[in-house]
Specification:
The structure is a single chain. This protein is of the alpha/beta class and about 350 residues long. The chain is about 40% helix and about 15% strand. It has helices at about 20-25, 65-80, 95-100, 100-110, 125-135, 155-170, 180-195, 215-220, 235-245, 265-275, 275-290, 295-300, 305-325, 345, and strands spanning about 10-15, 15, 50, 55, 60, 85-90, 110-115, 140-145, 150-155, 200-205, 210-215, 245-250, 255-260. A hairpin with a 2-residue loop joins strand 1 (about 10-15) and strand 2 (about 15).
């Protein structure tokens, strides 16, 4: 399959910058032009447009550890999950995904519909705000995102059926997509939320290791607080959603494993052919290995020296700010009220 992003960088068409082409068209106007960078992203033609939900992209941010990224993507496909519409946000210091886009297109072109490089190294909060910007400018009512240090395994009742039908599902229209793939089940969970809960904002599939987002709720709630760049930024945002009257929903549509490291090759090969029970055992044991180590050590191992030195300082500063905001350093904010008016953040 030929990938659109093989020929030119994503922001160029016909050797002419998209930004210049759009701004040039405003020459006849007396008003200053406004250019929204993510309005016309050249997604691959395999993009899945749902019959009633429209375009629901899945954002996956890649910052550190190429092998961990590939393990996650392999899990999305090799485990017969049947995911679609993956927008890979390349936040890596050397833009490794952009450099290896041909390889990604050959291996994951059925899932990845675009690679979007960031202009600089973004924090977790900045990435979340970027996802919302893209969804808003692309007129997506819903989107999903996930961590990249995870592996997925379909529920036992979906395993055999999804395994047989995965090739039929990839690239299929919503009317043809098999109902037992995890991607289809995620879309169905959004439909169910629309029917049963007017004020829903997010659907947690294993907290926010995998999550679906209602774009209008995030727009109303405002951006993630950039002064909490990484840890506890999620706690802050979900508490703000609740204070704004929004409801979060928990759904179990797939087994999600938070991985502390890349699996050994022999386990990777076994996962491709083993039975469901053995696959779950392998992933469960491997995920549990992270209880005795720093779960984010894999990130630190792949950081530049400057990043490794700066991250603890940024984390400490963000946590100090979080404590001033909520009177606690803990994530649980069940009854906490903020110490100042949040309206300026929203507006």
């Amino acid at each position: 399959m030929k990938a659109v992003f093989d020929d030119h960088d994503l922001y160029f068409t016909k050797n002419r910058p998209v930004a210049f082409a759009q701004i040039h068209s405003f020459n006849s106007s007396n008003s200053l032009p406004i250019y929204y960078a993510y309005t016309n992203i050249p997604f691959l033609p395999d993009v899945h447009i749902d019959d009633d939900l429209g375009f629901v992209p899945h954002f996956l941010a890649f910052t550190y550890d190429w092998d961990m990224l590939n393990q996650c993507l392999d899990s999305f496909y090799e485990s017969k999950v049947g995911w679609q519409n993956v927008v890979l946000v390349d936040n890596s210091p050397g833009k490794l995904a952009v450099k290896r886009r041909d390889w990604l297109a050959r291996k994951y072109g059925h899932m990845i519909i675009a690679i979007l490089p960031t202009s600089s190294l973004l924090s977790f909060s900045h990435l979340q705000n970027l996802f919302l910007d893209i969804a808003q400018q692309s007129k997506c009512d819903f989107y999903s995102w996930s961590h990249m240090d995870i592996m997925l395994l379909p529920l036992s009742e979906d395993w055999a059926i999804a395994k047989e039908n995965i090739n039929k599902t990839v690239g299929a229209k919503s009317s043809d997509a098999h109902p037992h793939t995890v991607y289809t089940k995620m879309l169905n969970s959004i439909r169910q939320a629309n029917r049963t809960e007017n004020n829903w904002s997010v659907i947690f599939y294993h907290y926010d290791l995998v999550i679906a987002v209602r774009t209008s709720a995030y727009i109303s709630n405002g951006p993630f607080d950039i002064y909490i760049p990484q840890y506890t930024a999620d706690c802050d945002y979900y508490r703000r959603l609740k204070l704004s009257g929004y409801v979060s929903i928990n759904q179990h549509i797939v087994h999600i494993f938070h991985m502390p490291k890349v699996l050994k090759n022999e386990l990777v090969e076994e996962l491709k052919t083993c039975a469901w029970k053995r696959a779950k055992e392998i992933l469960h044991i491997s995920a549990d290995d992270g209880r005795d180590i720093n779960r984010t050590q894999w990130r630190r191992n792949n950081m530049r020296i400057a990043d490794r030195e700066a991250e603890p300082l940024l984390y400490t500063a963000g946590l100090t700010y979080y404590q001033k905001k909520w009177n606690t350093r803990n994530c649980g904010l069940k009854n906490n009220e903020p110490n100042w008016n949040l309206d300026p953040i929203i507006t």
